[in-house]
Amino acid sequence: MARLADYFVLVGYDPGKRGSGDGQGQILQRFPEKDWEDNPFPQGIELFCQPSGWQLFPERNPPTFFVAVLTDINSERHYCACFTFWEAVESPQPQSHPRNGEGEEGEEEPSSPVQPAQLFAPKSLVLVSRLDHAEVFRNSLGLIYTIYVDGLSVSLENVIGNLLTCTIPITGGAQPDADDEAARTISLGAGDRQVIQTPINDSLPVSSCSVALLFRQLGITNVLFLFCAALTEHKILFLSSSYQRLTDACRALLALMFPLKYSFTYVPILPAQLLEVLSTPTPFIIGVHSIFQSETQELLDVVIADLDGGTVNVPECVHISLLPEPLLQQTREALSMVLDPELEVADLAFLPSTISASSLKMQDKEIRAVFLRLFAQLLQGYRWCLHIIRIHPEPVIRFHKAAFLGQRGLTEDDFLTKVLEGMAFAGFVTERGAPYRPIDLFDELVAYEVKRMRAEEGNKQKILRHIKELAEKLYKNENPYPAVTMHKVQKPTEGCHLRLHQKPFPRLDEGTVQWIIDQATAKLQTAPPAVKAEKKCMVPSGPPIAAILERNGNALANSARRLEVVRNCISYVFENKMLEAKKLFPAVLRAMKGRAARHCLTQELNLHVQQNRAVLDHQQFDFVIRMMNCCLQDCTAMDEHGIAAALLPLVTAFCRKLSPGITQFAYSCVQEHVVWTNIQFWEAMFYCDVQNHIRALYLDSNEENHAEEESTEEPQEAKSALEIASEQLRLWPTMSREKQQELIQKEESTVFSQAIHYANRMSYLLLPLDTSKNRLLRSSGLGDVESVSNSFVTNSIAGSVAESYDTESGFEDAESSDVANYVVRFINRFVDKVCTESGVTNEHLKGLHVMIPDIVQMHIETLDAVHRESKRLPPIQKPKLLRPNLLVGEECVMEGLRVCLMPDGREEAAGGSIGGPPLLPAEGAIFLTTYRIIFKGTPTDPLVGEQVVIRSFPIASLTKEKKISIQAQADPFLQEGLQLRSCTFQLLKIAFDEEVASDSAEIFRKHLHKLRYPQHVRGTFAFTVGQSPKQAMQPKAKEKNPSLRTLSKNLVKNAKKTIGRQYVTRKKYTPPAWEQRGSQHFPEDNEDEISVSEDMDRSTLTPSTTMRPSDKMTNAHVVERACCRDYQRLGLGTLSSSLTRSKNEPFRISTVNRMYAICRSYPGLLIVPQSIPDNTIQRISRCYRQNRFPVVCWRNSRTKAVLLRSGGLHGKGVVGLFKSQNAPTAGPSQTDSTSLEQEKYLQAVINSMPHYSDASGRNTLSGFTSAHMSSAGKWGSIRASGRMSSYALNVEIGSRLAGKDLLGAQHNGTPAETTFLRQHRASLYIIGDKSQLKGVKPDPLQHWEVVPIEVFDVRQVKASFKKLMKACVPGCPSSDPSVAYLRSLEESEWLSQIHKILQISVLVVELLDTGSSVLVSLEDGWDITTQVVSLVQLLSDRYYRTLEGFRLLVEKEWLSFGHRFSHRGAQTLAGQSSGFAPIFLQFLDCVHQIHLQFPMEFEFSQYYLKFLSYHYISNRFRTFLLDSDYERIELGLLYEEKGERKSQQVHKSIWDYIDRINRKTPVFFNYMFAPEDGEVLRPYSNISNLKVWDYYTEETLSEGPSYDWELTQGQPEQVEEPDRQDTGAPQSKRRIIWPCYDNRSRVEPDAISRLLQELHNLKTELGHVQERWKETWDGVKASQRTEARQEGSRTPSSLLMSSGLSHHRRSLGVYLQESGVGSTLNLSLDSDTSSTSTPSSGKPGGRRSTSTLYSQFQTSESENRSYEGSLYKKGAFMKPWKPRWFVLDKTKHQLRYYDSRMDTECKGVIDLAEVESITPGTPTMGAPKTVDEKAFFDLKTTKRVYNFCAQDVQLAQQWIDRIQSCLSDA
Fold first, then answer.
1. Other beta carbons within 10 Å of 934
2. How far apart are CA 172 and CA 628, in angstroms?
């Protein structure tokens, strides 16, 4: 029971205090006069009775009533109900007016002499109570006033005494019974009766209508602002002119905050004298009368609500955090439904009649219901975040704020965070955290209704229904009793306050009142104490947050797959499948961004901990650490998701052994995170652990008690700590004192032991591994996460918060003890806080403080050892170095240095825009062998971690090596690296690993340099192969053949003698020659020519006079050389004695140079005109550079025109041809004779041409133009232009395209020459350098013509090649690769050089084809000359387009005629300065361009060209070493092959090697080879027709360059037949082929290679004898019978048959007809049937499938029908005669027959190559009767005899003749 009112006070105006200030009130009487013990009398009541100040008023005001609230020192609230009325004061004396009352009256005095008759002073009746029953107070005070005013016959003393002694129950019961009601009904003894509505549950606030009123006054948004402001602890000030409304508004705001209680300053009505309270710094809710509004203006941080005006003013500097969405929106909607139900239906056409708002009281409760729901949603699941850390003697409960926010997903939310940090919430936890207490509406709502609220979200009807239900409960709580008996309280009569003669309020008799009070108190003491039995129970916890929060599911939607990845990765780590783990690792790190994955990681790791310990090996340890760090890196210092908490036990569990007795734990590597320095985190962790231990403590004891009862154990396991606590609290009062003490003791020691444990843990995570370094002054706590991935490079965070302590010292080199001191202080602070909160005794606490420094010190000592050992650890295990495969005889010079191969500018390998996995960067090693530089490793990207990446190139091809520093992606440091560029279009950009010492890198570079530029050509790999690198350079093989050695020695001796003789003369004449050369050449080129070694550049060598036996032997060898075989093939003379040589042959083979005396760089045998004697030749040679005089190298078999080559002339212009002053000569000047001999020589060449004298118009150029050139498709027209005397090949491409074509010749880039204007075409054209032929006047009498052209020199080729390499293999990526590539390609001008070479070559081909001879005489005759001459022969002669012919062409024109391979390839130290000039590569590129345009004319494939391009600079073979035959002989290279036949393993010659491969596999063979007789190729040379050779851009990272055939063949079982076929994997398997990784032609071979391979495999399986692929192919061709053999069975024919392709059969995408001529494409691709089933598929039946397939290509065959007609044919054995339509086809060299003339389906083919004879036949059985006997004839082939019969004898004869002529043609 409680007193209704504690004090009754009468307060009046104090006339004695009327001075300068306001008047003051004074307490006239108070009852009881002495304070109650439990409730002292509140001070300052008089201030609150008249809050705006005591004043006198000129008239009586009606009585007023309001309730003020005072808060005492114990923060108890006292409700002061003030009832104020006015009494007249006695009239003041006139003389005393200065000290008379103030107020209005005082102000009027001076102005008005008339004084008011009477003044009225306020008087207040005040009830002070701790209960807030405003209405009861209003009624009771009203009754007292009524008794006084109306003079009722009731003693006021009695009434007041009754009022003060009235006691009521504190809270109501649910169902009020009769006596209960009596207890609630009070009567003050004036015939009145009131029922006091005590709330059922006093924890719920009582609001009557105040909340609804507040919303009416301010509106929804404003109230929500105020609500949030109050919760987030802002200052709130209400203004109103009504005191009662101020009180109501404040009460309403507090009611809305339920279940939180407002704990700051709360003054609903603030008196005027206390206004300065408003500037207090603490939050408050205060009400002030609006007359003081002006005084509130300067408050800057106060939210002011004006109740009368309905506004809320939030100052600029105040930011109010609003409710989190969607709660804010939902709350607004719900409030709107309650307050303005019409809003929903306002737009309806027919308004429902029923809608209306509830009554004010009901509305009030509905609004509160909305806010109650809001809190239930805000705080749902809060009980799961409570930590109970002590149960006895009373519960101590802590709230885990971070976990709550984390689980709710509201860590970022300002509002909730502030609320949880606020005082109100702290009070809430204290009050409601207790596990065992009475529960109220809120507890039920948050425990049971959250699910329902979740479900009803969005359904307005259901929400409204719920709100109404709650409102009902709240209303019931406030008004438990329906008004059974009406209140009966007398009211004063209307207007009584205006009575004139009202006597003042009487003075009451204190004694009477006191006596009544004493009576009542005595009675109470004797009565039994009426104890309200509180219904305590266990507070329900409600569903855990996780269960409610499925709404955030979208964040976790795709996490199942991620969790799977995390689990797999961890299991791989612990199963030691490191490669698998590495693959998944990036995915795991990405997944760690998600909370679920981080939780999953901690759970999974937990499974691998046994007995608190898990010992790992180094790699596992590293993985685990990296995962932990990644996991922690996203944790905030609050650790709201409990990740750090879950990892805390794990970091002390995972460890690795560093050495015996020293173990490193994971914690030393995960210190880099802020969370460890956050003291709140440690507290939450500590409380959590303590709770678990306390729970365990009680669980254990329970289990001991209930050991017998088996069933109880299960449920107890699952009990939460709060449940156990509530159980214990229920039992507590029943326990004995000893038992209670024992439990208190146990709990206390549990907390204490945990504190020690945590002191240890904190020292683990706060002390850095290396305590010697002082890291306290580090600016940031959190390092780069990657940097911690290495398990022992780590640092602690001990310092990140330490700055506040230690920075004053300012010394960075403080002792390590600073770290220790700091950690000790940090732990002490922590221990103090948690121990005092959890009630640890002082002695224990002191003990702890003593212990902590020791713990820290001990830990520092262990760390020192660990740190020492961890420094000794090898770095993280890197991938094993893979050994590269080496060639036979290739030796490793330097073991692998660990490097990382970085991506360069090529996109493909690095992933790039093309897509595909990033194969680079790759980790591996770089190896230096005697032959190559090889990188072999594996990609760092774990998804392609199994692939092996190989990049290599021959050392000889290295063009540039520069040091670079590279930033590797994982490493912040720059590493030193190298960039090595090779002219095989490869680039190695490597970064040395940190384990590679820089001197190793230097040694690597030195070795590389030594190998790249050997002193002598003997140092190259082709010579040293097979020797260990340290041995002497002398090849051993030479001992076998002494005669050869003596021979070469003699040769060299002879040459040297001659050189000696010539030396002086040369010296004398040299200077002018050099100068002139200088004027025509760029200086760099000089260097090229001057820097040739001395014994090479001698000009004039006279041959020795006698011929020794050894020389004869030389001759025998020379004859075997390639050139000789070719000369004989061309019919250019035989090497026989001059007696037998037929004089009518125009040319002879001269041995004048057999000792290389005349021209060192020419071959020993040369073709010269028959009529020129040897000594003339020697003289002529002096006119030409390098003594390279004109010699014949090819003759056109049809026109007999010859192609000659020579060096450029020494003289300036052709004048020098005749007047060559400066040709060095041996004796006195022989100038005149020399020039005449020159002329004679050229004339002799001209005379050799059979139609030299033929001057008919047929040979004029115009005729040639019209005849051959009318179709531009073949070759651009040559039109002449008289204006230009010379043709510059380097005319701007741009101006040509723009049509500013000065030369008029530009269809196809073919030169237009003045020469071509002449009526008679010259017999010999000399193509010379324009700069040498300046000022030449054409002489009409001569038969030769000089064509001056501009060519590029070697220097330009070098520059262009450098740019081409940079374009195709850029060093670093560009922003727009495709554009950059095309631009740099154009800038390189490589294609324009190719264009120029092709253009000149096509010009020469045309001239030769029309019967003019051509002498190509450019530069020194060994670069461009060689390119042009070789191309001309290749285009004109189909023999050179076969494998054998091309070899011969290269040997003859390039090797024998002295292209300086060593010099141009910079193969030795001497050539280092001049650099690499790819003249031969340029030639091969030209061949490649022609090959692309004429794919059916070449027997060799594109791969063959690439193979040569690679190996002519690789130095693997000796073929392309040295500069001339002379040098090769000097080294004994040229003829040693015979002696060396036995050692097959090392191929000294590239040709032998190619032959060997070609025997095994068709890789060098072009299946489309189907040449035509006499076909002269005229390729387009426009740049638009040229393609960039894929040799420049492609690479195969899986195996490196595919040109070292043995290396790329892979598995040993494939060695015996290295087809380009990957038989390692079963063929059915699908494979992904990466563009830059796989060797496509091997992984996915073309159809024919595949069929050949399958056939080979089948034969192997069946055990048949293997035949070579070539034989199989030829067999297939034979059975195909679709093509005549032009060269017997040697030349393979193509499957792609083309009968009538137009003249060049160019490749224009698909081979369709060109111009008007129809073509037939009979693509018989049924080779799979023919090669896999039977060879006889050539029969008519076998071809049906394909011909139907390709019927769209078939036109009638008439174009290829040389002769056709009808013949009778006798069938095979026992078959009848039938008429058939026969077609004789010369082109295909076959006889085909059809059923009828109209038939397109060929019934059979007789191959004429197989016909042996044609004989007249005789009629046999069944022959046509009417025909003459002589019309029969037989055709005998190798297979059978065919019997034919024509209509008559003439026809038969014609057929026989035609077939005969075909046979003879063949």
1. 25
2. 58
Question: Backbone dihedral region of 252: left (phi > 0), alpha (psi from -120 to 50 degrees) or beta?
Answer: alpha
Query: Cα–Cα distance between 1682 and 1677 in angstroms, integer?
Result: 8
Q: How many helices (H) and strands (E) does the chain have?
A: 61, 45
pLDDT of residue 1334: 63
Does residue 1272 have a pLDDT over 50?
no
Structure confidence by residue, pLDDT tens digits, 1631-1648: 777 777 887 777 778 888
**Long-range own/partner contacts, residues 1052-1060 (CB < 8 A, 24 or more apart):** 1052/1529, 1052/1530, 1054/1104, 1054/1111, 1054/1155, 1054/1157, 1055/1095, 1055/1101, 1055/1155, 1055/1156, 1055/1157, 1055/1160, 1055/1526, 1056/1095, 1057/1104, 1058/1101, 1058/1102, 1058/1103, 1058/1104, 1058/1155, 1058/1157, 1059/1095, 1059/1098, 1059/1101
Q: What separation in angstroms does the CA of 170 have from each of 328, 571, 1857?
A: 36, 64, 141
- The model's confidence at residue 1482, banded by pLDDT at 50, 70 and 90, is very high
Dihedral angle sign, alpha carbons of residues 162, 163, 166, 172: positive
Q: Cβ distance 945 to 961 under 8 Å?
A: no
Q: What pLDDT is recorded for position 1204?
A: 92
Residue 80 banded pLDDT, cuts 50, 70, 90: very high
- Which residues have CB under 8 Å from 124's CB, separation 6+? 9, 10, 11, 12, 25, 49, 50, 82, 83, 84
Q: How far apart are CA 965 and CA 992, in angstroms?
A: 10
Burial of 1504 (0-12, 13-18, 19+ CB in 10 A): buried
Mean pLDDT of the chain: 74
CA–CA separation, 1646 and 1657 (whole Å): 16
Tokens of residue 1621, six digits? 């076929």
Closest C-alpha to 334, from 465, 232, 225, 472:
465
| pLDDT value of position 973 | 60
Dist CA 1559 CA 1668 (whole Å) = 7
How far apart, in whole angstroms, are the C-alpha atoms of residue 1773 and residue 1207?
69
The pLDDT tens digits of the residues spanning 753-811 come to 888 988 888 888 888 877 665 444 333 333 333 333 333 333 333 333 333 343 333 33
CA separation for the pair 679, 829 (Å, rounded): 9
Per mean pLDDT, which range of 1302-1316, 1353-1367, 1716-1730 is the poorest? Answer: 1716-1730
Residue 668 neighbours by CB under 8 Å, 6+ apart: 764, 769, 792, 794, 863, 866, 870
| Sign of the Cα pseudo-torsion (322, 327, 332, 334, in order) | negative
- Per-residue tokens: 240: 């109103």
The radius of gyration of the chain from alpha carbons, rounded to an integer in Å, stands at 57
Q: What is the DSSP string of 1525-1546?
A: HHHHHHTT-TTTHHHHTT--SS
What's the mean pLDDT in 1208-1224? 50
Report how far apart, in Å, the C-alpha atoms of 976 and of each of 960, 1366, 1865 are. 17, 22, 71
The H or E element spanning position 111 is helix 103-111
Find how far residue 1370's CA is from the centre of its chain: 21
Cis (ω within 30 of 0) for the bond into 921? yes
Using one digit for the tens of pLDDT, what is the confidence trace for 1784-1809?
887 778 888 888 877 878 888 888 88
Q: What is the DSSP string of 626-667?
A: HHHHHHHHT--TT-TTSHHHHHHHHHTTEEEEEETTEEEEGG
Strand order in the sheet with 1777-1785: 1804-1807, 1790-1794, 1777-1785, 1763-1770, 1841-1845, 1832-1837, 1811-1816
DSSP assignment, residue 1454? I
Q: Report the alpha-carbon distance of residue 1525 to residue 1451 in Å, rounded.
A: 10
- DSSP letters of 930-970? SSEEEEEEEESSGGGTTS-EEEEEEGGGEEEEEEEEEE-SS
